[in-house]
Amino acid sequence: MAKKIESAYKKRVDGRAFDELRPIKAKVGVIPSADGSAMYQSGKTRAIAVVRGPRTLHPKHMENPQRGVLRVTYQMMAFSVWDRIKPGTSRRSQEIGKVSEWALGEIVDLDAFPNSVVDVIIQIPQADAGTRVAGINAAVMALAQAGVPMKEMISAIAVGKMDKTLVVDVNKEEEDFEEGEGPTDVPIAITSKSNEIALLQLDGKMSIPELKELIKMAKVACKKINDIQTKALKEPGKEITG
Amino acid sequence: MEERKIVVPGETIIQGEEFLPGDGTRREDKDVVANRYGLAEVSDKLVRVIPLSGVYTPRRGNVIIGKIVNMNYRGWVVDFGTHNNGFLNVAEYPRFINKGELKEYLTFGDVICAKVFSADDTSVDLSVKLRGFGRLNGGQLITINPNKVPRVIGKEGSMVHLIKAATGCEITVGQNGIIWVKSSKVEDELNAKKIINFISENSFVSGLTEKVEEYIKKDLKLEIKDIPKPEPFVEPEFREERNFRDDRGFRGGFRGDRQ
Questions:
Q1: I need a surface site. Which of A131, A198, B39, B225 has the fewest CB within 10 A?
Q2: Which residues of chain B are within 8 Å of residue A153 when distances are taken between CB atoms?
Q3: Which residue in B23, B9, B92, B20 sits closest to B59, CA to CA?
Q4: Cis geometry, peptide bond prior to residue A54 (ω within 30 degrees of 0)
């Protein structure tokens, strides 16, 4: 065992263990008019995802005659954070929509729907860090409920490093931790069956052994999240807590 | 048939090399794995996933109700709520239509009832050649979730028969979730609409027929008249392959051009 590393981050602000997840709530079928919809809540972060389609794609120049197109839009509601956030598309929301699209694109199989689109709309009514992973978790449940052919499921989690301490499921207060090396946030999405990485983002400094350790921790956490997603899908309309 | 259970994508339904992966499943080594969300069914050796939700996928032989959204020289384009529109060829109309006279038979905005005679990923071909198909005049359209259509039809059309007996409406149920009701009185149509919405809201209840009968008698205060059950409709077989050479005269012109 390596010698204990001195870190400025000794105890988590909300009293959780370093590898403990925030309380999770998941529900499938929250919006009756949609083809598929789901809610995923982790602590104070809440995401609602709606799936419409496969349907006719507009604008037409985006059409692909070989396979269907997946289009993900991510948006934070104006009241989701303490300061009002300007509604509408921003550079940040476009980026998150795009990375979620790539992650979900790994599992959906739209070969049977050429020239059409599957629209995924992710809305964040309440944000407390880790919104993109909450969005992906909700979107994958909504896609499944919409009956879109998929190879497997995805679960996502934001792991991170506070000074030198590795933690799972970072919240907003931790994200603002400033001492030592400061906070590093790593959103990771893992597929359920093949256990592969579908999304990994990293802003900040990190050594390779630390990153390897974080991926290990994320895989364990994603297993737990996947169990909750599966449970929610098996009992549509019921809120699952875990 | 074994018990059915809900499966999620990527879940192993059954293990063993003797099982055949059917609709919505794939083989992975020895396992049969679900490719989509739904009810897994193992009948004999065939494993398949029955969709519980999602959009309607057209299949050969389905009856659908749709609207004409476009026309060209060889037929009509029909929108019936799927990702690609259906096409109704002039040759699939019950009578011969001269060039440029398509508009006189069916035109933009007309609602038709048609049969799917071929469907694949890229195109859906429709036909109105059989009795009872074609333009729907008057009446109302009701849209429900396509996954609930089997409950509205009932066992061998029993539920539709019940609605007809209670309201006296003419009813056509499209597999795509669009239902057409028509009666001489608007009240009858509205009552039929209420009953259909009741069925689609309570589609998961067991003993649905009794519940619906109770709803008709108590809530809507209608009496269920004794009307004769229709003769079981024997479907005429569709021609598997169409030989367009037979339909054409000299140098490929339509037969009717020489009249």
A1: B225
A2: 8-10
A3: B23
A4: yes
Give the CATH number of the domain where residue A101 resides: 3.30.230.70
The CA distance from B6 to the nearest CA of chain A, in Å, is 6
Distance of residue A228 Cα from the nearest chain B Cα, in angstroms: 12
- Contact list, B83 vs chain A (CB under 8 Å): 53-56, 68, 113, 115-117
Per-residue pLDDT of B170-194, as tens digits, reads 899 999 999 999 999 999 999 999 9
Domain carrying residue A202: 24-234
Residues A23 and A43 sit within 8 Å (Cβ to Cβ): yes
Q: What is the pLDDT of residues B15-70, one digit of tens each?
A: 989 999 998 999 998 999 999 999 898 888 899 998 888 888 888 889 999 999 99
Q: Determine the Cα–Cα distance for residues B258 and B94; give it in Å rounded to an integer.
A: 19
Contact B24, B142 (CB under 8 A): no
Q: Would you say A152 and A192 are in contact if contact means Cβ atoms under 8 Å apart?
A: yes
Spatial neighbors of B201 by CB under 8 A, at least 6 apart, are: none
Cβ-based contacts under 8 A for chains A and B: 82
Out of B9, B38, B54, closest to residue A153 by CB: B9
CATH 3.10.20.310 fits domain B63-135: no
pLDDT tens figures, A163-219: 888 999 999 988 888 888 888 999 999 999 999 999 999 988 899 999 999 999 999
Query: Distance from A233 to chain B by nearest Cα, in Å?
Result: 7
Q: Of A109, A113, A145, which has the smallest distance from its Cβ to B53's Cβ? A: A145
pLDDT for B148-169, tens place per residue? 898 888 888 888 999 988 998 8
Q: How much is the ipTM here?
A: 0.88
Global pTM reads 0.86
List, for residues A28-43, the tens digit of each pLDDT value: 999 988 999 999 999 9
| Residue pointed to by tokens 């009741």 | B198
Domain made up of B5-51: CATH architecture: Beta Barrel (2.40)
Cis omega (within 30 of 0) for bond into A59: yes
Instruction: Specify the residue for token string 């109309």.
Output: B93
Same topology for domains B5-51 and B140-219, yes or no?
no
- How do beta strands B178-182 and B140-143 pair? antiparallel
Residues of A with CB under 8 A from a CB of B: 35-36, 53-56, 68, 107, 109, 111-117, 144-153, 191-193, 229-230, 233-234, 236
Two structure tokens written together for B24: 């919505």
Alpha-carbon distances, residue B226 vs A11, B161, B163, B167, B207 (angstroms):
76, 10, 12, 11, 21
Q: At what angle do helices A208-234 and A131-145 cross, to 10 degrees?
A: 40
The pLDDT of residue B95 is 87
